[in-house]
Amino acid sequence: MDGSYKLESFTDNRESEVNRLKSQVDLFYQREFELYKKIGLRNGMRLIECGSGPGFLISNIVRDFPLCTATAVEVDPFFIEQLNKSSLINGKKIFQVKQASIYETELADNYFDFAIVRLVLEHLKEPEKAIAEVRRILKPGGQLVVVSNDFAYHLLTYPSIPELDDMYRAYIESRLSEGGNPLIGRQLPVLLKKGDFETINIEIICVHNDLEGDKPFLKSENVNISKSLVKDGFLKKEILETLIENWYKMLQQPDHVIFRQLFVISGVKGAKTAVPKSKTNENDSKITDGRPLNFDSLKGMTSTQQVSELGIFFINKVRAIMEQQSLEIDLHTKLNDIDIDSIAAAELSSIVKSDFNTGISISDILQKYSINDIIRLVINNSGTDSSVRPNDLVSKSGTDWLEGEL
Fold first, then answer.
1. Residues 99 and 80 sit within 8 Å (Cβ to Cβ)
2. pLDDT tens digits, one per residue of 89-148
3. Of 138, 35, 120, 136, whose CA–CA distance to 79 is shortest?
4. Is the same domain home to 192 and 320?
5. Which residues contact 35 (CB under 8 A, 6 or more apart)?
6. 365 and which of 196, 283, 345, 389 could share a cystine (Cβ 3.0–4.6 Å)?
7. Contacts of 364 (CB under 8 A, 6+ apart)
8. pLDDT per residue as tens digits for the range 11-27
9. What angle do CA 59, 60, 66 make, to 5 degrees?
10. How many domains does the chain have?
């Protein structure tokens, strides 16, 4: 299995890692389980967890929802041994165990009601492929829940510990080098949408030591991962030593805080096999006879024709960028008067540069330019150096272009 989660890279002590994973599940489980139910998990459903590890999460769920028909998918042989043990209680099989990759589960199409992928996608080289495979085995209307970190928003403390930032930067660098993406949490709604899931939602589960106590945090954050970062050259030994010292000092403070969060993204498998991708309207970059509107097409026109065609072109572009086809705008309307935002201004600036090789600043679009001003710049720059940005080209309201004015 490719990616950044390998037992040997996480710890020298496999039993210690199993204990850490258990504590990590325990720390979040009550809030997590309530959220699963809110999303749609029900007793009696066909449930699958892809990337189950030792199986602590799925064991908890079937304990609380004993009528679920549950399956745990895991690729690591050591974790498969753990799963086979935890799947038996008093000789009764409480969930099925399948040794397979999340990329290719070898399970039936359209079978499961509810799928959980917890702290897995952040370690994969091809998360999109995993999402597609989980979608395949879900029924139409089935739900996928992805639980993930984003290590730009990980564990926080009070008093703050600066070395934690160093450690997490080292962790991010390490996992990226191995093919993972520890910053994937922020991307997951987009990835599920691209994977043809519908009704996508995002939640954040937060835990706090004043509510949970210190011990669950301490058990779920052991030092073995940090030691591996030092061993592999991603973190300086001195930083780790200072981190441990400051962690101890933080715990001695009477009002100390340990805070952590997880991203939870959910989506529903629709009946469609694919979501049609939107296409750019090619007509808005053409002039009336179908020729592309650019410097070459402008050269054969009179100045009146140039202004007319550029005016139509830019009015249509602004309406499209603003997603307001009925927007009332003319050549003299200041763009800041129609509440153009910074993203729309950046897009318009990019269009002027790419289509007409004319530089125009985003701040000028936001503060003072009308479409007429942009047209003046484009025509003035036609056939000249693209760095020309005359400040005196800002038009006065009501100013008309005269035949031959260039």
1. yes
2. 999 999 999 999 999 999 999 999 999 999 999 999 999 999 999 999 999 999 999 999
3. 120
4. no
5. 203, 205, 264
6. 345
7. none
8. 567 888 899 999 999 99
9. 80
10. 2
